[in-house]
Amino acid sequence: MRKLGIPLAIALALTLLGAVPAGAAAGDAHIRLAHLSPDTPEMDVYVVGFDGKETRVLQGLGYGEVSDYATLPEGNYTFLLRPEGAPASSTPAVTASAELKANSAYTFAAMGPHANLQKALLTDDIAPPSAGKAKVRLIQASSAAGTVDVATVNGPTLAENREFATATGYAEVDAGQWTVTVSTSSGTNLERRLGLDAGTVNTLVVLENASGKIELTRIVDATGTDLGGEGPLGARQAAPLGGVDTGGGGLAPHTIGDAANTDSGTNQALLLAVLVGGLVLTAGGTLLVRRRTA
Amino acid sequence: MTHRARHRAGDPGDGYVPRHLAAPPARGRSRLVATAGAIALVVGVLGVAVALKGLTAGPGAGGGTGGGTEQAAGAGGPADVPEVRRPARPEGQGAPELTVPAPSPPRRVVIPAIGVRSDLEDLTLTGDGSLSPPQDYRRAGWFAAGTEPGQPGPAVIAGHVDSPYGEAVFTRLDELAVGDEVTVERVDGSPVTFRVTAIGRYPKAEFPTDEVYGPVPGPELRLVTCDGTFNRSTHHYLDNLVVYATLAATPTLG
Questions:
Q1: CA dihedral of residues B80, B83, B84, B89 (deg, nearest 10)
Q2: Which A positions 21-80 lie with beta carbon below 8 A of chain B?
Q3: Span A154-191, pLDDT tens digits
Q4: Could you give the ipTM of this predicted complex?
Q5: What are phi and psi of B222, to 5 degrees?
Q6: How many CB atoms neighbour CB B79 within 10 A?
Q7: Which of A217, B27, B33, B152 has the most CB atoms in a 10 Å sphere around its CB?
């Protein structure tokens, strides 16, 4: 995730460390912010935790940018967005509260013209796709586009008549190189190439680029090792099956089984006897062969 | 992101027989005696080989291969869907603005809390599709076909909890606690540091593949070793211990 927001994750982790119950990490929530409002300036993002403390966690999040996920203990949070550099005492331009559940991931998206800003808290289902597949969904974040259809050429349809400020669920798509078509009710038709690695979870976003043209962008929500199959971009091998045998048993506090009764048992005494016997036979045999062939 | 798996030159092998023990050709007058000698020699050599194999047998090393093809982007046709990126910014007075590390294969894992400092060997898959354990009990290994530590996704490092005779690289892994740091030094010279977020113990039959290898939102690390009861019949532990960690900080060079 070389795009962004490690800063957000780190800042949240640091600032909330004191408020994190010990051992809460096993069931954390993940949340990121998406700035998809073309005429809204760059924003500073503050988070208010359950302790009521307000902390700036991200500086200057601009249009078209999506932060990385921040990891937080589950609970209720309020996110405050102020124009970059505005004092923390000023009235936030955007306020949103969210109840974040453990082991869940969310995208908070602010979309469309500032005068009619649409806010959405999307649930990001980052559970693994099936073997050899990737997951893809679409956020329609362009108010200028009207409704959009997004489809893969010779593959599944990703969105149909999708209205502004809504998102599709995730579709499973074969990993590989795809051509994606976008057609909007406003009359824009795009054709773009999209590479999907197996084991990844992706979000496509329809938005307006800097010059106001409708464009398709993508975010990799989550990356995993393919649970079978291979993708075109990372040349990933399938994840190993099951666990790993990482021990010789020398310090085992508890043992079961009987080494002597198994085919492959390393009964040390028996093996030593075989070793010694073998050496004797070898020596004897060598002597005999030498004597007879000399 | 580069995913690579390098094959390591193997040891001579368990069946290796020193050259001076090899049988010379039998050309004697008494074939019977020579044959008997040769049989004794063969049996003896086999015995030595079997015994040596039994005495030195380590964990099974896999014959699986890693890596694959990297498909180059073709010329012409439609443009790629651009990935949204947030440009690097100067550090503000509030949140630290750090950059995510560039891709680099790992070289060494360092876990100060339990005194671990180990070079990493590349781990591949065994013939049955499971992760091959490190060949050296004192050295940890990295699943080289998976995620590079520091890149988005779950990087996996495995090490032995013990050898047949005593301690191994991850003997003290179960002493790690949430919040402990794990640093992976990388080939490009820069370290990445992870912080432990959770520790799990699982019967190998119920290994949580999705949790360990499945998609995660950012750079994460898993440390895996054995745990629980040792089965002397199969020579394997029944359980795995998994330490989960997420990126704690990125390197600040200079």
A1: -110
A2: 22-23, 25-26, 28, 30, 32, 44, 55-62, 64-69, 71
A3: 999 999 999 999 999 999 999 999 999 999 999 999 99
A4: 0.72
A5: -125, 130
A6: 11
A7: B152
Q: What's phi and psi for A208, nearest 5 deg?
A: -100, 135
Which H or E run contains A283? helix A268-293
**CB environment B42-65: b (16+ within 10 A), e (fewer):** eebbbbbbbbbbbeeebbbbbebe
CA pseudo-torsion sign B1, B160, B251, A6: positive
**A 163-202 → B contacts, CB under 8 A:** 177, 179-180, 191-195, 199-201
Would the CA dihedral through A5, A9, A10, A16 be positive or negative? Answer: positive
Pick the closest to residue B239 from B206, B211, B213 (CA basis).
B206
Of A56, A192, A268, the CB nearest to B79: A192
CA distance A64 to A66: 7
**Is the pTM here over 0.80, yes or no?**
no
For the stretch B42-52, pLDDT in tens is 555 554 544 44
- Tell me if residue A98 falls in helix, strand or coil: strand
